[in-house]
Amino acid sequence: MPSYGMGQAAELLGVSPDTVRRWTDAGRLPTVRSRGGHRR
User: Fold this and answer.
1) Is 6 left (phi over 0), alpha (psi -120 to 50) or beta?
2) Which of 3, 1, 13, 14 is nearest to 38 (CA)?
3) Which residues, 6+ apart, have CB-to-CB distance to 37 below 8 Å?
């Protein structure tokens, strides 16, 4: 499964990056953390 940054995912879904962050925090979208702590 490919991984996307927050901005890329937001663009693909047609929403803002803040919306994608809220969805990941709520568990609606799966995320993986990079070594630096960034969500993917």
Assistant:
1) alpha
2) 3
3) none
Whole-angstrom distance between the N-terminal and C-terminal Cα of the chain?
11
Whose tokens are 């609606």? That residue is: 28
Q: Max Cα separation, the chain?
A: 27
pLDDT tens digits for the chain (40 residues)? 788 888 999 999 999 999 999 999 999 999 888 888 777 7
User: Is the CA virtual torsion 11, 15, 16, 20 positive or negative?
Assistant: negative
Nearest to 5 by CA among 27, 26, 36: 36
